[in-house]
């Protein structure tokens, strides 16, 4: 039976929860992937940000700025 550890690379790159959506988009584009695991400040997994989620968060922030509201 194949486990997740069998499929993972030893040098896996993880995003940080404190990164902006733009930083996350740049990193996934540079790696040529559509998603990567995210870690919080305590190094615990926080989720799997995907390119769609990054695009939605960025669009919401841009819309808030355009309307003169603080970004989410």
Give the neighbour order of strands across the main sheet: 1-2-3
Shape: elongated
Instruction: Quote the beta fraction.
Output: 5-15%
Query: Level of helix content?
Result: 40-55%
Order of helices and strands: HEHEEH
Q: Mean of residue pLDDT?
A: 77
Uncertain residue segments: none
Question: What about the largest sheet?
Answer: 3 strands, mixed
Distinct helical segment count: 3
Going by helix content, strand content and strand pairing, the class is mainly alpha
Distance between the termini: 43 Å
Give a quick rundown of the structure.
This protein has 72 residues and is mainly alpha-helical.
Model description:
With 72 residues, the protein is mainly alpha-helical. Helices cover 43% and strands 10% of the residues. The protein is built from three helices and three strands. The chain has a three-stranded mixed beta sheet with strand order 1-2-3, with no helix packed on it. Helix 2 packs antiparallel against helix 3. It is elongated and about 55 Å long. The mean pLDDT is 77.
Summarize the helices and strands and which ones pair or pack.
Elements (H helix, E strand, L loop, with lengths): L3 H4 L7 E2 L4 H11 L6 E2 L5 E3 L3 H16 L6
Helix pairs in contact: 2-3
Features:
72 residues, 3 helices, three-stranded mixed beta sheet, 43% helix, 10% strand, mainly alpha
């Amino acid at each position: 039976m194949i486990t997740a550890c069998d499929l993972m690379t030893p040098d896996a790159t993880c995003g940080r929860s404190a990164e902006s959506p733009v930083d996350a988009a740049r990193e996934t584009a540079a790696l040529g992937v559509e998603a990567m695991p995210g870690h919080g400040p305590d190094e615990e997994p926080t989720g799997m940000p995907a390119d769609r989620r990054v695009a939605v968060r960025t669009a919401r922030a841009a819309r808030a700025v355009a309307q003169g509201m603080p970004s989410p």
